[in-house]
Amino acid sequence: MDWRQYEKEAQQAIAAASTAGELDDARVRYLGRKSDLAQALRAVRDRESGMLLNGIRAQLEAAVEGRRDTIENEALEQLYAQSSFDVTLPGDQFRSGRLHLLTQVKREIEDVFLGMGFEVYEGDEVTDAWHNFDALTTDPGHPSRSPSDTFYLSDDVLLRTHTSPDQIRLMESREPPIYAIMPGRCYRRDTPDATHSPTFLQVESLVVDRGITLADLKGTVLHFFRALFGPEREVRMRTSYFPFTEPSVEFDVTCFLCNGKGCSVCKFSGWIEMGGAGWVDPDVFRNVGYDPGIWSGFAFGLGIERIAMLRHGLTDLRLFWENDVRVLEQF
Questions:
Q1: Can you give the pLDDT at residue 150?
Q2: CA neighbours closer than 13 Å in the CB half-sphere of residue 237
Q3: Helices 20-31 and 36-43 meet at what angle, rounded to 10?
Q4: Most buried residue, 20, 73, 87, 105, by CB count within 10 Å?
Q5: Which residues have C-beta within 8 Å of that of residue 250, sequence separation ≥ 6?
Q6: Mean pLDDT of 266-285
Q7: Residue 288: phi, psi to the nearest 5?
Q8: Which of 155, 166, 171 is nearest to 132 (CA)?
């Protein structure tokens, strides 16, 4: 057989193929297992014939691959020409998401306390009356126990009204010393308005150790608010009353907008009320099995929404929960 003529015919057939199917037919005809070339290669016995036939096979295989690339490129070009969408153009840039403002503030609060050696303890949002009220020495007739104030799931099971039940559960689970904060979502039957919501975020701090004094409480609160609102902040305490602390205090921080000079945000007093605190009541220690003669400690709590509102000049906490992107994308 004239193998050079064979190669020439095969090259012409491969070049004439206009579709993948036609190209595959030409490949099978000239390179397939039943082709003349394949049969001759099986029967070859001398070096010269083997080199000739293998060279022809290599040339035809290269021609097939080259023609296949050309056919695929032509098909893509035809597809591009028929489509109004140019796949070679850069894609649209999607904006990356971000943490909700309240989550940002919550994590910043956690970071400040972690830097002071505190741990973060997160409890359950569903609790019982013992942990939410009784262990905290809340009087049986206290208005907060009323179904008009608290979401009850049954006679004894409820949605926590503050994160203080987490303090009780933490103390029940271990021996002192304890340095911890408890951030979380709380629930109360409040009518939504600019300053109230039936669901809100709160963070409480609990310290139990030997030799703890009110000076430790003030120093902790002062460091915390200076970390959040700037090193110029000052803190003052005013006597107050809470069922689970004795003595109880409320703490104010110098206004971070006017720096204590007086403005509309601080009602021209120079101070902003931030939350409640106090010395842990000895009866609370007794309820969790601690000896108040050995252990002492303090607790304080504040609303995360309030911190976010004050830092960013927002006047309505409903903005946090309405998920209006025009508001949230600013933070």
A1: 95
A2: 20
A3: 30
A4: 105
A5: 237, 238, 240, 273, 275, 276, 277
A6: 87
A7: -105, 5
A8: 166
Closest CA to 162 of 119, 118, 201: 201
DSSP annotation of 143? G
DSSP state of 97: P
Cα dihedral across residues 63, 66, 70, 76: positive or negative: positive
CA 267, CA 286: separation in Å to the nearest integer? 41
| β-bridge partners, 252 | 236, 273
R_g (Cα) of the chain, nearest Å: 39
Measuring CA to CA, which residue among 49, 75, 59 is closest to residue 12? 59
Lookup result for tokens 């809100």: 200
| pLDDT above 70: residue 84 | no
- Alpha-carbon distance of 266 to 260, in angstroms, equals 8
AA letter at 89: L
- Amino acid at the residue 2: D
Query: Which candidate, 281, 232, 282, 285, places its Cα nearest to that of 256?
Result: 232
- 238 by DSSP, 3-state: which? strand
Q: Which amino acid is at 67?
A: R
Confidence of residue 273 (pLDDT cuts 50, 70, 90): confident
The residue whose two tokens read 């306390």 is 113
Task: Judge residue 169's burial from the number of C-beta atoms within 10 Å of its C-beta, 0-12 exposed, 13-18 middle, 19 or more buried.
Answer: middle
Q: Which amino acid is at 142?
A: H
CA atoms of 224 and 112, how far apart (whole Å): 7
**What is the distance between the terminal CA atoms of the chain, rounded to a whole angstrom?**
82
Instruction: Write down the H helix ranges in the chain.
Output: 3-16, 20-31, 36-43, 47-82, 101-115, 129-132, 164-173, 214-229, 282-287, 304-312, 318-321, 325-328
Task: Judge contact between 305 and 198, C-beta under 8 A.
Answer: no
In DSSP notation, 68-90 reads: HHHHHHHHHHHHHHH-S--TTSP
Maximum separation of any 2 CA atoms in the chain, in Å:
113
From CA 232, how far away is CA 255, in angstroms rounded? Answer: 10
pTM of the predicted structure, to 2 decimals: 0.67
